[in-house]
Structure formats: structure tokens, C-alpha cells
Amino acid sequence: MTAFRTLDDADLADKRVLVRVDLNVPMESGRVTDETRLKAILPTIRTITDKGGKVVLLAHFGRPKGRDESQSLAPVAKALEGQLGRKVAFASDCVGEAASSAISRLAAGEVIVLENTRFHAGEEKNAPDFVEALASLGDIYVNDAFSAAHRAHASTEGLARKLPAYAGRSMESELAALTKALEAPVRPVLAVVGGSKVSSKLELLGNLVKKVDILVIAGGMANTFLAALGKKVGKSLCEHDLADTAREILEKAKAAGCEIVLPVDAVVAKEFKANAAHRVVGVDEVGDDEMILDAGPETVAVVAQKLDGAKTVVWNGPFGAFEMTPFDAATVAVARDVGKRTRAGTLLSVAGGGDTVAALNHAGVAGDFSYVSTAGGAFLEWLEGKALPGVEALRR
Ligand SMILES: Nc1ncnc2c1ncn2[C@@H]1O[C@H](COP(=O)(O)OP(=O)(O)O)[C@@H](O)[C@H]1O
Ligand SMILES: O=C(OP(=O)(O)O)[C@H](O)COP(=O)(O)O
User: Fold this and answer.
1) Which domains does the chain have, with CATH numbers?
2) Model-wide pTM > 0.90
3) Where, by residue number, does ATP bind (predicted)?
4) N or C: which end of the chain has fewer CB within 10 A?
């Protein structure tokens, strides 16, 4: 018997199936720029529609504080329609009259997306009345959002305890693939953690340093460490109030024998925009009116040298603001290097995260990696050995 109930165990005909998916996709000017997370949920949607269920998709987008139309899921629902090749309805709220009347109009085999769950404070609080309001809209709950499973929210955890709960196809395959690739990784293991979600990913590094041999800290995360070590980072993305936590992580790494690699140079600019005037500087030379938007070429060379000694790579979070040229250079260079080594058979590589996957696609190498997960933070917490609330709630 498997650890979870799956869609194979469910009677789906004519049922209202609440499916938690991750529609937190990269977007620019109202357009989805990477559809990996949409493609990942197609098998679950099709399994349910083929069996005559009504698919009610629940998801968050961004981190709004209350209702905020700029964080609406409406354009994502449109993009999903394109991927699915069939009509996808949309309801302007995920609870209440707007949701229930739209769902009541669904015929068997039809699909609807409900508006951003994070428009309601009860979502992140996992508030019982909000869980109740969501549960009243469905007969069955399916979680297909491995990438949001590290959040104990109403739609990722609370609902699984309220309705008959099943793992979706993507949830199943993510857990199986990560277990196969990383349950007993060949050492040395090199991890790259970068990106912009500094506060939500910094603390997990304290445990990660006990699991990996080399930790390359990149992106906005690196700026926070550089500042904690007394370097001036100007206007860079940086969480100065996390300096103590950053220093504690460096101590933990030392105690665990994990080598920490920080950028030695940076590409800096005065404006956060594509093709902004920029210069390459050492990390001691960032001006007060400048911001670090990418790692420099010397850092890329250091990472290449560290990769020479690694057998397994895990990666979440880009080296820079890769959506804007030329600040994609370090991310693209390291991605191509890892891809090449993986193809040559000298490295096993696992990468994940909404933006990281978009960056690998941008570099044209996602297909070269051993495994690409939809998940970033959730994948790192899984790697830390932490129980993920969204996964735990699904266990039989
Ligand atoms: N130095 C930097 N300054 C500003 N933003 C950065 C910097 N480095 C990386 N980023 C941003 O980090 C974002 C991705 O971070 P994150 O959400 O943590 O990754 P993922 O979605 O892969 O988990 C990208 O939008 C990228 O532009
Ligand atoms: O994009 C996500 O995670 P990721 O940035 O770690 O890939 C998930 O949708 C979780 O979003 P959250 O970090 O706002 O809870």
C-alpha cells in the first residue's frame, strides 16, 4: 500500500474536486513567461476530467496582503486554458457566493480556477472558518502543489484534514523523483541557494549545511551574507536585520565541515532595469548608490572550480536578476556548465523553483539536468529532512 491515497483510489464521477495547484508562475506585464508549473498539473486535471469529475483549482499568487487585483489569477487561468486546450472558467473569489455559484454551473469534466486564496487572511493563518468555507465548495480534495507543501495554509494543509484527501499526479511524481535522485546522494554534494526570498529561505540553510559539503550562496541571499560580513552592499536587495542569522549559519557550516562559497565579484548598476549602465566590481567596491544585480565572472569561475570536485548538485535560486539582460550572465553560465557536466555523466543535477526553472529554460538547458522540480523552498526543506505540512496531511 502506498503512503498516500492517489487519484487511482478516488471515485471522481460527478464529484466537485478541489485541487490545490501551484499557479505562482513567473509573469511580466500580465503575461506568463514560464509555463512549467502549468504543464506539471495537466495530468491531474486530465485524469479528473476523464473520469467525469468537476475540477475546481485553488492556488495562491504572489504575497498579497488582502485583495489586490494586480495579484489576480485571471491571466494565469487564461494561460492554463491554452495549455489544456479547453475552456477554463474563472471565479472572482475563492469562497462565498462568487465561488459557489460558478461551481454550481460546472458540468462533469469542466474546469474552473478560483481567485487567489491569499486575498483572504484565513489562508495563511489556516483559520478553521476559512477552511470550512473552502471545504463547503467540494466533495474531495487533491493536493498537486508539491512546491507549496512547505506552507501549512488552509488550502495546502487544513483542507486535507477536512475532506477525503488524495495526492495528485505531480505531487506523486515529485516525491518519487526526488527520493530516487537524492535519498542517498553521491558525495561531494554542492548546493546553490540564491534568489530573492531571503527571509523565507535563510533559516533553512542552518540545516542544509549539515547535509551538503559545499554551499554556494548567490543572488539576494548572498548580499545579506556579504552585509553580515561587514561589506557595503549599497542599494542591493538585502535583509540587514537577518545579519545575526547569517553569521550563525556561517558558524553552523564551520562546525558541520561545510564549505561556504560567497561571490567575490559582482555586476552593479544604479537602476533596476534591463540594459542599465553597469560595471563589474569586487565585492568590496560596491558604491552607496549602486545595487548588485548579478555575480561577476570571477565568481562564475570559482563556482566552476568547486563543481570540478562535486558529484551531485542541488540548486534553487538564480545568481542575479536574470529576467533582465545582461544580469542573466552568471545564472546562464553556471546553468550551462552544470548542464554540460550532467550530459557528460560527471554530475547528477537537481534544480527547482518557479524562477529557477524559468532561468534554466532561458539558458536552454532545463532538459540537460538530471531532474527539474517545480519546487524551490519546498524542495530545500524536503532536502533538509523536514516534514512538509502539505505532504504530511495527505498520509493515509
Ligand atoms: N541580486 C539580485 N537583486 C535582485 N533580485 C535578484 C537578485 N538575484 C536574484 N534575484 C531575483 O530572484 C528571483 C528568484 O528568487 P526566488 O523566488 O527565491 O527563486 P525561485 O522562484 O526559483 O525559488 C528572480 O526574480 C530574480 O530576479
Ligand atoms: O513559488 C513558490 O516557491 P519557490 O519560490 O520556492 O519556487 C511557491 O509557490 C511558494 O510560494 P511562497 O514562498 O510565497 O509561499
Assistant:
1) 7-168 (3.40.50.1260), 185-383 (3.40.50.1260)
2) yes
3) 201, 323, 353-356
4) N
